[in-house]
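Task: fold both queries, return tokens.
Query 1:
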Amino acid sequence: MNTLDEARRAIQKEAEALLELARHMPSNFEDAVDLIFRSRGRLVVSGIGKSGHIGRKISSTMSSLGQKSFFVHPSEAPHGDLGMIDTEDVLLAISYSGKSVELLPIVEFCKRIGVKIISISGHMTSTLSKNSDVALHLPVIEEACPLGITPTSSSTATLALGDALAISLLSRRRFSRERFKELHPGGILGRKLSFAFDVMRKEIPLLSLGQSMQQAVISMTEGKLGCVGIIDVDGKLAGVITDGDLRRNMSDNLLSLSVDNVMTKTPVTISKDVFLVDVLVMMESKKITNIFVVREDGIPIGVIHIHDVVTEKIV
């Protein structure tokens, strides 16, 4: 078997492990979700070796989705880190064998102070399972490692089960994209969840109904956006004139026309709290390069050019 075939076989084995997990989810999975959801404390995650690495990722995912969580290394726990754990916390202990002796001190401590314990392992009768309030058992999994030794498929399945817990909690708490944005202000995720208000230009090129197209062209040139908004006597957006409207209405008497005759009526608009990624989708689907941001009463408060969205690098 060549290298590429071996790689494909490994990926196939891990994919099969995930499908097996999906078909045989632990029957007490909801009990684990309820335990974390009802806890007034934090989710403490612990594991040794590969399980520890997976545990760190699970804890990180939980934190990013609004569940307060941290990882405690089982080797450091009996040397003072047990003091980080409070009686209202929940422990998520991970060990595929369920026999990791390094976990014993933290499990015993949690049982002694009344901390509820959730475990993820592959053996129902293991020491860890027997000492858990909710023992989540993975189905029989064949490792992708040809020697059947290195944690591969089992690690992938453990991570997937941890993600399933996190997503279930997200759904239970009705965790919103707004809240996600608060927890992810930086990086590509933060930019994707920026709002229209964050990038809109507040100096808006505006004219009133009845004004001439000559003034519209001047306003569009000064605004450097290729558009001008037309407002009615109440200050509400009544229409928009763009470069495209100029081309479609090009004639010898264009400049003598009223903006009322050229503007696009009932233009596409958005509110200030629309996510920037949704603004881009809307602009691409409508094939427009500018979009006005309006209040609930229709009064314009900003305008976004497609370059404002692209420069945020949300794609």
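Query 1 returned. Query 2:
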Amino acid sequence: MPRPIYAQIHTDALRHNLMRLRQSCTDARVWAVVKANAYGHGLANVFEGLRGADGFALLDLNEAQTLRDLGWRGPVLLLEGVFEQRDLELCSRLDLWHVVHHEAQIDMLSKHKTQVPQRVFLKMNSGMNRLGFTPQAFRSAWARLNALPQVDEISLMTHFARADDAHGVDAQLQVFQQFSSDLPGERSLANSAAVLRHGTRDEVSADWVRTGIAMYGSSPDHGLHDAAHWGLLPTMSLRSQLISVQPLKAGDSVGYGGLFTAAYDITVGTVACGYADGYPRHAPTGTPVLVNGVRTRTLGRVSMDMLCVDVSALPSVAIGDEVTLWGNASTGQVLCIDEVAAAAGTVGYELMCALAARVTVSVV
């Protein structure tokens, strides 16, 4: 039989989360952000659950081609725009919209030979300080684009840096409005955190929102609110089995480096899951896990192919019993991926994206 670790992608949860996000910004159209192979879920695996979105946003031209091959005929947005001149040829062929965030991309457009002008999203750096034109250069960039016959409609966008904390969106929103208020075109500002925390404000939700992590059942402000608070459901479950059960006496250690030493007699289960499967190697003793739906903890260092869990409190336990590393147990209990990530000192995004290719994935 194959190794017992596997992941499930939950189509109904994807639909539910998309609907939940729409409820927070009822007048805006929704980009389903599917970059990084749909946050590790697999683009083809999430397509059916997310095809109710108004458009898909991603980074990679190959993924854009995959969407068209899957039958999507609606808008597709390249969030980082094009990287070289010939990318524009594929934008024309696949009817892709793309972000413009620096002068070189305008230069490429000015040299592009096409009979069909392209839809672009002009990005302002309103305070994130990653991509985008400075507020002071934004108008001249718009004027350059507007003068090109290769460009059709120009939409305006920015990205909030702190929508997930108490600083909110007001400072960046003020900058964006100050330097773009009299320019025509649709607007796109809000990410998942902005949608859930501020999406009822028309100036935040604007014309398009870009929903990423929340669509996959992870809270964008975990630590303040969990996924259940926002009404989000897990879209990925990672499960395996116990492949060994053994007693540990007080004073015995577990795993490489002996990082965990038992203070009293316990029972240890070994799970077919390790960092080569995408589980975080730096997850410490105490990281939550479900065994037969019962919440317990990891013990010691995570290995390449295995990790150990405390099964002392389980009434009966045996080789082959189900272990849920995150997501839904078959018995109905839920372990939010954000809890596992927080214990490991990271975020749910990383765990989703790190799912290894050797893990069997099915869509349910």
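Both queries returned. Flag for query 2: The CA atoms of residues 219 and 229 lie 9 Å apart.
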